[in-house]
Amino acid sequence: MSVLESFKQLKAEGKKIVVVTSYEYWSAKILNDTDVNGILIGDDLSMVIHGNENTMNCDVETIALHTRAVKKGAKDKFLIAAMPFMSNRKGLVDAMNNVETLMKAGANALKIEGVDGNEELYAHLTESGIPSIGHIGLTPTHHNAIGGFKAQGKTKESELKIVDEAKRLEQLGCISIVLEAVPQHVGAMVRDAVAIPVVGVGAGLDVDGQALVLPDMLGFSTDFKPKFVRTYLDGANLIKNAVNQFAADVHSGKFPSDAETYAPGKDQLKK
């Protein structure tokens, strides 16, 4: 059974899909031995890895660079690469060149924000046998148009628009939907409106799966914590404590020990 068929079966059986982000070899290698179903190389790496204020500074080559690294570590996982800001908005030929770059970097599917203006691309990807995932609700690259990083689907008009977008994504051939920052009942509405899996990022319990940013859930991101993030590890303090212990061992002469020091060769030993 393919991963795509597996995702659909999980939805049909009411079992949840789990997705987390990864951007580098070491974390991908760890995730390869976990129970996650998929790994997202998201354009949020512009913020959590490169320190930018939003995702708009990310480009295709950056996503490709990180995708290649993740692929080396997570050879057994389904990899989803995000198409970053404007990479899908300069015409079909340009967009497909970017698609080619990301797929050759190791992606198994591509995540694209929004529906309007992307219909031709979604349809062409489907016809080309390239899996696509539509991202609706809060779409970070559109934050200037929607008033910032705010929850969506908070009015009747907005929730109906999101449901309509989900139906259109399914009709265009998307294999799944990412639904971000909406009330729980909107997540349930979208789930029931389509046959393809709906993975939530702050979309409540009733969707078909959940996704989180790895540095957020491990407690590494100390600048900002979205409402929907649950922290499973006090990562920042664990790192600080470990580094401070290393520094203390260096200052006190406890590091390196004899066991951590190379011995001389036999002909160097004094007789």
CATH topology of the largest domain: TIM Barrel
State the strand order across the main sheet: 1-2-3-4-5-6-7-8
CA-to-CA gap between the ends? 68 Å
SS strand fraction: 5-15%
Helix proportion of residues, in percent? 40-55%
* Secondary structure tally, helices: 11
Structural category: alpha/beta
Oligomer: single chain
List its salient traits.
single chain, 271 residues, alpha/beta, TIM Barrel, 2 domains, eight-stranded parallel barrel, 11 helices, 8 strands, elongated
Tell me about this structure:
There is one protein chain. This protein is α/β, with parallel strands linked by helices. The chain has two domains: 3-233, Phosphoenolpyruvate-binding domains (TIM Barrel); 239-268, no CATH class. 41% of the residues lie in helices and 14% in strands. It contains eleven helices and eight strands. It has helices spanning 3-12, 25-31, 45-48, 60-73, 92-105, 119-127, 143-146, 156-171, 184-193, 214-217, 235-252, and strands at residues 17-21, 38-41, 78-82, 109-113, 132-137, 176-180, 198-201, 209-212. The protein has an eight-stranded parallel barrel with strand order 1-2-3-4-5-6-7-8, surrounded by six helices. β6, α9 and β7 (198-201) form a beta-alpha-beta unit. The termini are far apart. The mean pLDDT is 94.
Outline the secondary-structure elements.
Layout: H1 3-12, E1 17-21, H2 25-31, E2 38-41, H3 45-48, H4 60-73, E3 78-82, H5 92-105, E4 109-113, H6 119-127, E5 132-137, H7 143-146, H8 156-171, E6 176-180, H9 184-193, E7 198-201, E8 209-212, H10 214-217, H11 235-252
Parallel strand pairs: 1-2, 1-8, 2-3, 3-4, 4-5, 5-6, 6-7, 7-8
Helix pairs in contact: 2-4, 4-5, 8-9
